[in-house]
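Annex B. Sample input.
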Amino acid sequence: MSFGDPNNPYGQQPQGQPGYGYPQQAPQGVPPQGGYAYPQQAPQAYPAYPAAPGGYPVPGAQMPMPGGVKAARVILFIVGGLQVLGGVVLLLGGAFFASLFADSSSSSASDAGTLAGGVIVVAGIFCLAFALWPLLTAAKLGKGRGGVRVSGIIYGSLMTLFSGLSVIMNLAALGSDTAAGAVVFSLLLALIQLGLALWVLVGLANSAAGAYFRRPQY
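Annex B, continued. Sample output.
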C-alpha cells in the first residue's frame, strides 16, 4: 500500500510517525509526552508575608510586657495588699476600741469611745474600698488598653504626692521635741512609699509602656 511522497506535507503520512508542523497528540486522558508538548512546571510556593509595618508584631503574635510595666504591676499588687491588710486592722481596732468603753460607768466616756471606734471603722472601710483601685489596675495591666495605663499613672501620681507630703512633714518633725525614733521610722516608711510611687509612675509613663498599650489585640 503506497502512502505517496513522504516529503509532501499534505500527503497522507504513514502511521506511527508524527506529521510536520503539529505535535503528536496523545489519547484522551493521557498527558502529552515528548514531541512539541510544553514541559510541565512545578507549582511555585508563595513567599511569606512580610512583617507588619510600624514595628508592630504580625497578626496573632503577642508583644511581651516591658520590664517597667511588670515592676509597676507587682508594686500595685503589693500596695493594694498592704492597704487591704491596713483596712482589716482598722476595722478590728475600731471594733475593739469601741468595746473597751461600752461597759464604762460614765456615759460620756462610753459615747466618746463609741464615736472614736466608729470613726476608726469608717477609716478601715474607706481603706478597703481604696485598695480596689491598685488591685484592679494591676490585674488588668496584662490585657488592658490605654485606659488601664492612665488609671495606673493617676494612682502613681497621687501616691507620689501624698508620700512626698509625708516626707516633708516628717523632716519638719525631726527638729521638734517629739520622739525621734518614731519620726525616723515614719520618715523611712514615707521614703519607701515615695520610691515605689515613682517606680510605678516611670514604669507606666515611658515610651516602651506606651507602645505596649497601643499594640493591636486579636
